[in-house]
Design a protein that fits this description.
The complex is a heterodimer. Chain A is mainly alpha-helical. Chain A is about 60% helix and about 0% strand. In chain A, helix 1 packs across helix 2. By secondary structure, chain B is of the alpha/beta class. Chain B is about 30% helix and about 20% strand. The chains are: A mainly alpha, B alpha/beta.
Chain lengths: ~80, ~350
Amino acid sequence: MNVSMDSLAEVIAGRFNLPRESIAAETSFEEMGLDSLSRIELSLSIHKELGIQIDDEEIDKMATVSDLLGFINRMQ
Amino acid sequence: VIRGILSGLGAWLPPLIVTNAEICAGLDLTPEWIEKRTGIKERRVVSGGLSIRDLAVNAGRKALQSYGGSDVDTVIVATTSPDRLCPAVAPEVATLLGLSEAGAYDINSACSGFIYGLATANGLITSEAAKAVLLICSEVFTPLVNPADRATRPIFGDGAGAVILRRGESSESGAIGPVRLGSDGGGADLLSIPAGGCRQRAATGLAHTQLPVEDWYLHMDGPAIFGHAVNRMTQSARVVLSLAGWSGEDVDWFVGHQANIRILQGVGYELGLSKAKIASNIDRTGNTLAASIPLLLSDMAQRGDLQPGNRVLLGAFGAGLSWGATTIVWPELSVDGLE
């Protein structure tokens, strides 16, 4: 089953204490203030909350929430 | 049930402070970047030819003072930065502490050395092979860090911490709680110093002097280690919390190996612990490998942050890969400062 933008945004907002409304598909990790360690923290949270494991190297290549959502749904 | 009881605690830091600004000289880094990525502002570094033996003796002496006696029959030194390949440093440390006939040996479980050492000391006591064990975690790792490597150079500091376990009952404060140790040798190359041992020489046929200079320094895959550290520390912490019958809310302090504040916060997040329960002094010490937990415990006890009856979760992760966790209810202890 595909992961929705809403569920992914909830995970990101919850992990980094960001307002949900600040996270849109085209929001970049840089705009959210997430560095490369934050991306690893996010991949751990995605595994915990959504049961999906993403390689650290893969998440490091992504720039936006949309990149991440697309990758997750291609994995399904 | 017989258990090892925490009955003495001491730690020692060398006096020379090296700030992030000093580390950044010649490297493409800023002090703020180091602090944001690791939580480290400064670290202590040895000078004047001090080695782990000297740091171990200073910390061991303080632990003996805290214990208020010298009836220790075993000395274990946990270190990742041994003075030499052979012999172990523990017999020399025991002699310098006036414990000349104690059983004495070294263990190397890298940054997990304190938890592995506690498990070992507790095992010696419960099997009645020892009555009181001095466990000293001593590290002078900064000479093993490549001065030109921006990934590892900012992280490490030198220091030593020591505890004494005596024989007692599991119902006493200070009793070592359930212990969980783990390892994954598949990750051995993620944190390693290739040269100095025998395997590389046997494989290459080269003399030590012919081996590449960078192989004498730490190699670290930081991003891979970060994820493993959070996962394994969380996993082992969950096991010991369950065996101890504690929930996350019961924990007063999570005292984890001080590798990176963000690893500790990641474990705290996974366990549902509030940030206020995550103990840290990494801003002033850097990563002191096996020594970091007893150094932090001393620091907290001396400042009065650790109070008798506090429920403490201990956890570590390091090279090997290796990890471990245990619990302790904090006992009455008299503890000196770190200088």
